[in-house]
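re: ur question from earlier - yeah i can do the single chain one, its not a big deal. heres the input i used so u can compare w yours
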Amino acid sequence: MRPAPLAPICLIAITGCVQPVMSSRSAGGVAGDILSSIVLAGGASSAGSGSRPAPPATRVIETAERYLGVPYRWGGESPASGFDCSGYVKYVYGRQGVRLPRTSREQAEAGARVAPRIASLRQGDLMLFAESRKPISHVAIYAGGGRIIHSSSSGGGVRYDDLGGKRGLWYVDHLVAARRLAVDGRSLVQSLQSLTMPNVPFDPPDGAPPPR
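and the output i got, formated as tokens:
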């Protein structure tokens, strides 16, 4: 006897309806595969009953601090090999169970839009930077208190930078976007695939002046 067709699986306000491919796997297995592709991202309208609790911002910063001093490495995405800017952000949030895309340009589409000015930021927000008339090429995590934590080529690796200092002013002047990954204690979700851009290279070194 042929098995009955599987019903479409609907993820409300997340990815829409997906028709499972017929196979020997159970409907529950298919649903698990789909849910495993969900990431912390999207617009405020996505934060519905299916969204997961967001990691507390303090825990994100505590995780980020564990890797202070890890050297910068272009294309790096682990403490063993070193980090570039977006590899570091992806790793830190990954330790909180949050999947983000790989590059700063892709991460600039994750979460909810925030006005790109320091007064609008909350701890844990992503800050995106770009050279004049060039695409986004650097990302940092806002740590609160006018500081960022990031993996910086000009700074030699994972470090804090004070946005009020001479070096920090470079980041203030080149801030072009900011994203918030949670609203009202709920994660904002959408498909990782929708954030992925084809053939996006790893982020280049940042152009900030070296620390004194």
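The CA atoms of residues 27 and 167 lie 54 Å apart. not sure if urs matches, ping me
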